[in-house]
Amino acid sequence: MNTVILMGRLTRDPEVRYTQGEKSMAVARYTLAVDRRRATDSGGQNTDFISCVAFDRAGEFAEKYFRQGQRVLVRGRIQTGSYVNRDGQKIYTTDVVILEQEFADSRRDGGGGRRPEPAQDDGFMNIPDGVEDDGLPF
């Protein structure tokens, strides 16, 4: 099984290109900055920069809605590859091919997501009048 789920912030706006040929397709590339906790007693975090690629409709979505600094949640698969650069050196690549992507923050937080807003600033909902304490399950 080859499945990866990541949550991180976009390091820059997605770079989008379109394939040539009879059926043109969007290919969006972006990098996620993903925090990783250190395994030492001192605590703290390290950050991994993960290359992602989204094809077709997912690529179009990334082009239209994703912006630098937004926190996003992605699910995909790891794909490795290699190519020879202009200097004749073999370069190895590792990308996450995106299968699903969504905003991880609400619109209020600048993420553009679709989470409902809390009723009050403190996040608690008022209990309506007429509800007795013994009727509550807790």
From TrEMBL:
* Annotated CDD domains: SSB_OBF
Region annotation (Disordered) maps to 103-138
Gene3D superfamilies, per database record: Nucleic acid-binding proteins (2.40.50.140)
Repressor keyword on record: no
Q: Which species?
A: Alitiscatomonas aceti
Q: InterPro entries from the xrefs? A: NA-bd_OB-fold, Primosome_PriB/ssb, ssDNA-bd
- This chain belongs to the protein called Single-stranded DNA-binding protein
Q: What keywords were assigned to this record?
A: DNA-binding
Q: Recall the GO molecular function terms of this protein's record.
A: DNA binding
Describe, as the record does, how this protein assembles with itself and its partners.
Homotetramer.
Q: Where is the composition biased (Basic and acidic residues)?
A: 104-118
